[in-house]
Amino acid sequence: MYKSYYPKESEIERKWYVADASGQTLGRFAAKVASALLGKRKPTFTPGVEMGDYVVIINAELVTATGTRTHLKLDSKMYHHHSGYPGGLKSVSLREQLRIHPDRVLRDAVWGMLPHNRMGNALIKRLKIYAGPNHPHSLQNPEPLK
Questions:
Q1: How many CB atoms lie within 10 A of CB 34?
Q2: Which of 66, 109, 110, 140 has its CA 20 to 30 A from that of 36?
Q3: Rounded CA gap, 126 and 116, in Å?
Q4: What are the residue ranges spanned by the domains of the chain?
C-alpha cells in the first residue's frame, strides 16, 4: 500500500532569495517570485502546504511594462481604490504608482498570482520589497533568484 507524503512543519527548510527587478518585465518577474513563494521549485512541493521561501526584491522602481506601445501602457494601466464614500474612487496610473509607491506595484502583481485565502496571506508576508538596491536582510545571506 502506498502512502502519500505530507511534509511536517519541522521538515520544511526555508531559504532566502534576493531578486533584482531592474529591467525585468512586471508580469513575468511576478510569476517567478510567486513560484518561489509557493515553493513550486522544491521537489517536496505539496499543494495546500506552505513550502515557500522568503523573497527580497530590490530595485522595484526600475521594473518595466511590456506591450507594443510601452509608454502608453504606463499611462493606460490604472490602479483603483475606493474610500467607501460616494465619489470616493481614486485612480492612479502605473507610471504614477511606480514613481510614488513602486513596492505596491510589485506587491499587487505577486498577490494576483497567489491563492486568495489564509495561505496566500501567510505567503505574501514572506515577500520583502525595496525601491532601491539596499535591503536590511543581508544577515540571512540571500541567494540570487534565477
A1: 23
A2: 66
A3: 15
A4: 13-66+102-144
* pLDDT, tens digit, 9 for 90 and up, residues 67-111: 766 668 888 899 999 999 999 999 999 999 999 999 999 999 999
pTM: 0.89
Alpha carbon of 4 to those of 32, 40, 42, 143: distances in Å? Answer: 28, 18, 17, 31
The DSSP secondary structure of the chain, one letter per residue, reads --------GGG----EEEEE-TT-BHHHHHHHHHHHHHTTTSTT--TTS----EEEEE-GGG-B--STTHHHHHHH-EEEEE-SSTT-EEEEEHHHHHHH-HHHHHHHHHHTTS-SSHHHHHHHTTEEE-SSS--S-GGG-PEEP-
Q: The domain at 13-66+102-144 falls in which architecture?
A: Alpha-Beta Complex (3.90)
